[in-house]
Amino acid sequence: MISKKEVRMSTEIAELMPERLSDKTRTPTPAEIEVFIGVEAQHQLAALEGQLAARYDLSRELRFPFGKDYGWGYKFSHKSAHLLYVFFARGVLVATLQIGDAQVAKLEVALPGLSLKAQQLWKNRYPCGKQGGWIHYEIDTDDDLSDVLALVAIRKKPARP
User: Fold this and answer.
1) Diameter of the chain by CA atoms?
2) 37 — alpha (psi -120 to 50), left (phi > 0) or beta?
3) Which of 50, 67, 123, 152 is 20 to 30 Å from 74 at the Cα level?
4) CA–CA distance from 103 to each of 40, 41, 98, 151 (Å)?
5) Phi-psi category of 40—alpha, beta or left, where left has phi over 0 and alpha has psi -120 to 50?
6) Per-residue pLDDT tens for 18-59?
7) Distance of CA 49 to the CA centre of its chain
């Protein structure tokens, strides 16, 4: 059963989110995705995917997993292990990943080396489990990209360093 607090938090998160590709009945084409996210986000997506592919046996699926508030995005996996979602927002990418209870201690060791933005996102995470949670990280800079890659590595150790 979802608590009233969780419903409020979910609603607050959705209200802060930028415009998404949210029509589930129409799968966006690669060209539509590129136009929607813009040139800078296209470069960030290519860089993220390249870095992930260098570290993991990467697969990518276009998915609509959580409804219209999140919209369409790529699900990235290493073999059968889910790594993260990257949702398409107007002019920006939003990386969504879960840090489970088993990974919290490892995250807390790494957190001081991450940006203040990453630290705040963790502090304000959407709770999941006893200590874990979901982070919705807007990728605006190369530093953001580094943070997201570090968070993914906490979630799943890279197959290749």
Assistant:
1) 43
2) alpha
3) 123
4) 31, 28, 10, 10
5) alpha
6) 698 889 999 999 999 999 999 999 999 999 999 999 999 999
7) 12
pLDDT, tens digit (0-9, with 9 covering 90-100), for 66-119: 998 899 999 999 999 999 999 999 999 999 999 999 999 999 999 999 999 999
Report domain extents, the chain. Answer: 4-155
119, 111 contact by CB (below 8 A): yes
Residue 1 token pair: 């059963």
**21-26 LR contacts (CB < 8 Å, sep 24+):** 21/71, 21/72, 21/88, 22/68, 22/69, 22/71, 22/72, 23/68, 24/64, 24/67, 24/68
CB neighbour class for 140 (10 Å; exposed up to 12, middle 13-18, buried from 19): middle
DSSP H or E stretch at residue 15:
helix 4-16
3-state secondary structure 117-161: HHHHHHHCCEECCCCCEEEEEEECCHHHHHHHHHHHHHHCCCCCC
